[in-house]
Specification:
- By secondary structure, this protein is α+β, with helices and mostly antiparallel strands.
- Helix content is 21%, strand content 11%.
- It contains three helices and two strands.
- Strands 1-2 form a two-stranded antiparallel sheet.
- It is globular and about 45 Å long.
- The mean pLDDT is 78.
């Protein structure tokens, strides 16, 4: 239930398109991306922190989003993840 407090504590603020990025990519990271490498960053803040992985992917956005939001498949794709479930699902700006 999305209205109940969850065991993981408070949730992060909603992702906003065109918001100021929390992770900055510098020239050395741009070089890594150009060479096909993944760039990872971690930032701590008042609510705990944020981790991000950045990778250039040669695929249409709909394919990338489908992979990102297939939460039930994360245990097969991400080491150490045992379970990943939605507790709220709603349509976004492009359905």
């Amino acid at each position: 239930d999305a209205k109940q407090v969850h065991s993981h504590g408070p949730t992060r603020p909603n992702f906003l398109l065109n918001a100021k990025p929390m992770i900055r990519i510098g020239p050395s990271e741009e070089t890594k991306l150009a060479n096909g490498e993944v760039v990872t960053k971690q930032v701590r803040d008042a609510s705990g922190g944020v981790g991000a992985a950045v990778e250039d992917i040669a695929a249409p956005p709909r394919i990338v989003w489908r992979q990102l939001i297939s939460f039930a498949d994360y245990p097969k794709k991400v080491p150490k993840v045992k379970i990943c479930e939605n507790y709220l699902q709603k349509k976004n700006f492009d359905n």
